[in-house]
Design brief:
The structure is a homotetramer of 127-residue chains. By secondary structure, the first copy, chain A, is an alpha+beta fold. Chain A has a single domain, classed as Thiol Ester Dehydrase, Chain A (Roll). Chain A is 17% helix and 46% strand. Chain A is built from two helices and six strands, in the order H-E-E-H-E-E-E-E. Chain A has a six-stranded antiparallel sheet with strand order 1-2-4-5-6-3. Chains in contact: A-B, A-C, A-D, B-C, B-D, C-D. At the A-B interface, helix 1, helix 2 and strand 3 of A face helix 1, helix 2 and strand 3 of B. Strand 3 of chain C pairs antiparallel with strand 3 of chain D, so a sheet runs across the interface.
């Protein structure tokens, strides 16, 4: 049995990473559908929040800092009912205590499904 | 094997429903944790989007209309690492073509974990 | 000539203040209308951001801290074309470094025009 | 006396327009400052909402449709205390009933001050 985290349960896999950029793929299946047979908006946002949080974690010293998602906004533009979706996170602002990410989620044809903004707070572990 | 939807995979269960109000409980476990052992912000938002969407579905004639989540904003305020969380959705605005929901997610002690706003669009199936 | 700030230019006046709560009134006139003769959504949000920022300023030691609006989300629900609107800010979360405010803007009949969420960051002046 | 709209009061001037794109400049002065002498976040958002709304108005038949700002999210990243700021709106999604705009506001050196997302609803006047 899978003893992992939400990311593993949902089948999210990272496919590309560079400084301030992260990409992942997520299946559209039982685990991510809502009852009408469409990708659950919450699954899309979970993918987006995973990407932004991991992206920030790669940019800071995790022995000294915690990385915390603080604010998420998501605009859902299209529905998708099968296959996979791709999430692509790019950092917009890299401050000392705050990161802002844009995360676009697209379908297999490259059409924009949802576009998200995640604010991540970098907290010093001592304070 | 569970052939259900995201909601079932995540263990979300509705506990109370009345017009313009919906409540549910969600376990904090492998399915909803992020790697640091805390509830994944994406799980919280998936719970919130589930509540608002179902809440709207209960208010319209689904044979004539589709109910689509359009815009979500979420502010994460506290972390939680075990037990369950409770999501409570209340409708703020019930227009002909748009619903706005506030969804608060609280821990077992009643402390506010996240507070969310979901815009749902009611689309006539014919148009 | 008025040498004041945006708040004065727009005619915003505070009418009530207590800890974690602030209320103001704003005229709907040339200064706040858009070309269709309706209250400009940007005016509503400026009122909301004024209320949340001032509300936070009243809660911290301004000799030691700066108060900075970081993130605003606003849902516009109704239009208004004359008279005044009332903005009412209530604090949802009062952390050491972050405040979250809900600000509701209503018309003279008490109908909800817009509902907003403002995240304010409290920054130590030394750091 | 200026009998105009909020846009005129604030000194917003359009400088460039093409399909799905609009640019404007706004002075940072008494009309747009908050008490600490910094550009009011609400002024930035009013500029952004002006740009997205006008951008949508240019794309639809205004004799048959109304254009209404429905949802705004703004992330404030930097402060500015003098000169002018530039707002640049680009359409992300152009649906039949909904437009989504990204609006970036930058200072004179091209640094990003705030980044905003505006959802505009296109309403048929008859319905």
């Amino acid at each position: 049995m899978n003893k992992g985290t939400m990311m593993e349960w949902m089948g999210i896999e990272f496919t590309e990473a560079k400084e301030g950029y992260l990409k992942a793929v997520m299946p559209v299946d039982n685990r991510t559908l809502q009852p009408m047979g469409l990708l659950h908006g919450g699954a899309t946002i979970a993918l987006a929040e995973t990407l932004g949080s991991f992206g920030s974690a790669l940019l800071v010293d995790l022995e000294k800092n915690d990385v915390v998602g603080q604010q998420m906004t998501a605009n859902h533009l299209r529905s998708v009912c099968e296959g996979v979706v791709y999430g692509e996170a790019e950092i917009i602002h890299r401050g000392k205590t705050t990161h802002l990410w844009n995360i676009d989620v697209k379908d297999e044809k490259g059409r924009l499904i949802s576009t998200c903004r995640l604010t991540v707070v970098i907290k010093n572990k001592k304070s």
